[in-house]
Amino acid sequence: MAGGQVRNFTLTAAPTNLTLGPGVTTQGWAFNGTVPGPELRVRQGDLVRVTFRNQLPQPSTIHWHGIPVPNGEDGVAGVTQDATPSGGTATYAFVVAVPGTYWYHPHQHSAEQEDKGLYGALIVDPVTPGAATATDTTIVVDEWAIGPMLTAPPPGDGMDMMAYGIDTVNGHTGSAVPPLRLAAGQTARVRVVNAGFLTHNVHVHGTAVRILATDGHDVADGAPIQAPVPVAAGERVDLGFTVPSGSWSLDWHDGTSAARQITIPLTTAGTGGATDASWNGDAAAVDLSTYSAAAPPSTAATATVSATLHLNEGSSGMSGGGMSGMSMGGSQFSINGKSFPDTAPVLVHRGDTVELTFVNDGKLVHPMHLHGHAFEPVVLNGHPWRALMLKDVIGVAPHATVTVRFVADNPGVWMIHCHELHHAAGGMDTLLQYAGSPRLATLTGDTTPE
């Protein structure tokens, strides 16, 4: 896009001592010494050039989650690049054509590396500003497994995920979470990035909110709601509201005790920002598939390529070795009965209208992420997804079926995987492969896409 600027950044990944809250410390990994890493704020049409310096004890990469970059800039070890070795340097360069809320994180041993704190937000402001907001804030949500027996992420999901006993927002928990200081009557935008592995239901107490965007893409004419808004692993949701007077807060409703650690006081002039007395961890989240909204332009009515991906989890008897073999506590994860790299790719030509149907045959939620493209959810459990919106992650509940649609307009070889990254490390990955596009790297040595 003409008229953009060249924006240069340096991101250095290195071990860092972290204090998440009073008495809560851990040896983490961080970009530029902070968790989250620096927020990269750019303008639509800018050329973003990032120098990545790897000071970790193992190879790493940076993936630009949700941004439709050229395939060679996607940062997926073993698919689009060789991982940058310890002590090495790499450069990423791409034009940001689509405004919105995005983020960055490793795509090499990512269940471990992201879990230690390697992530940050990438915000792309539009060339033509929309409605003015007095406050534009990004909050990055995560869970942490901290303790003497938890030197690595726990395997799998379900009961194992109970080890994640600390929730953070922007790297802080409990009383260390700073308040948002606002003025009554202001229009606020809060961009929520879920860098963790669990779905978090984000609830603003004291006022109705609108969903302004999902995964970086605007949602028009959203109805005001007061229910919690679900944000699955890897997803982003932008919330808009008018700041009321009085004491109120933003907090999580996800059914875990750790969620009680996250209350962000939203402080208006003359008030203390106390937690709303109506906090209820069991409050039902809004159903995004029925959220009232005007539709963005539909990709097409008829698919030229259709693929069904059955998602499941199982024991070590499943075919395929997965990224980590049996390092996931004996669990493996599959697509159509195979674990990556034995999964069959989805083959497309440029210009195809592609429908992917995710069928969850298992017992765990699988937030499925497509690299390099945005898709439109079109069907949920046999019923139309009434609230048309664009996304790059879709949470597929146990025994649910979700169909998404997109135009194949970004040639290359792209990952499709579960963004509960333990599941991806266990094999729940496949490839979207364009005819004639070469795979830019192969799985050799210490190179794994997850």
From TrEMBL:
A Pfam family recorded for this sequence: Cu-oxidase_2
Which molecular function terms from Gene Ontology are attached? copper ion binding; oxidoreductase activity
Tell me which UniProt keywords the record has, alphabetically. Copper, Metal-binding, Oxidoreductase
Q: Could you tell me which residue ranges the Plastocyanin-like domain spans? A: 16-126, 332-428
Note the superkingdom of the native organism: Bacteria
Keyword Metal-binding among UniProt keywords: yes
Q: What is this protein called?
A: Multicopper oxidase family protein
Biological source species:
Candidatus Amunia macphersoniae
Q: What is the phylogenetic placement of the source species in the record?
A: Bacteria, Bacillati, Candidatus Dormiibacterota, Candidatus Dormibacteria, Candidatus Aeolococcales
